[in-house]
Amino acid sequence: MIEVVIKDRCSGCGDCVEACPSDVLALGAGGKAVIAAQADCQTCLLCELHCPADALFVWPETDRVAGVTAERALASGQLGAFRRDHGWGEHAATHTNQHWRMGAIFERARLQAMDIAATKTARTEEGCST
């Protein structure tokens, strides 16, 4: 769940607001991102991914607020880690985004599931005919 916006880092670009599928973030009176509907956060991390200033901190807990403060988020060393580890923006040259490969993995899992289902069906039919 989105925990905090680090105001000193936020440039007010609005990229996080546009990226959020649940309208959790909004641009506040000062032109910087604010958490407008924290309980609606899906923990999808799109806001963090799209924030070029690394001003957002999303905690993996999805059903409750963990109470992470700006100070704790800064001390964690995790601000920007999601963008970096996924090869976004300035990190594209050093961290290759491999998400495109997931299609092949999902296809393999789908084919395995079909094989398992066919095997179960065949066993059931064999058991009924004898």
UniProtKB/TrEMBL annotation:
<keyword id="KW-0408">Iron</keyword>
<dbReference type="Pfam" id="PF13237">
    <property type="entry name" value="Fer4_10"/>
</dbReference>
<protein>
    <submittedName>
        <fullName>NAD-dependent dihydropyrimidine dehydrogenase PreA subunit</fullName>
    </submittedName>
</protein>
<dbReference type="InterPro" id="IPR017896">
    <property type="entry name" value="4Fe4S_Fe-S-bd"/>
</dbReference>
<dbReference type="InterPro" id="IPR017900">
    <property type="entry name" value="4Fe4S_Fe_S_CS"/>
</dbReference>
<keyword id="KW-0479">Metal-binding</keyword>
<dbReference type="InterPro" id="IPR050572">
    <property type="entry name" value="Fe-S_Ferredoxin"/>
</dbReference>
<feature type="domain" description="4Fe-4S ferredoxin-type">
    <location>
        <begin position="31"/>
        <end position="61"/>
    </location>
</feature>
<keyword id="KW-0004">4Fe-4S</keyword>
<feature type="domain" description="4Fe-4S ferredoxin-type">
    <location>
        <begin position="1"/>
        <end position="30"/>
    </location>
</feature>
<keyword id="KW-0411">Iron-sulfur</keyword>
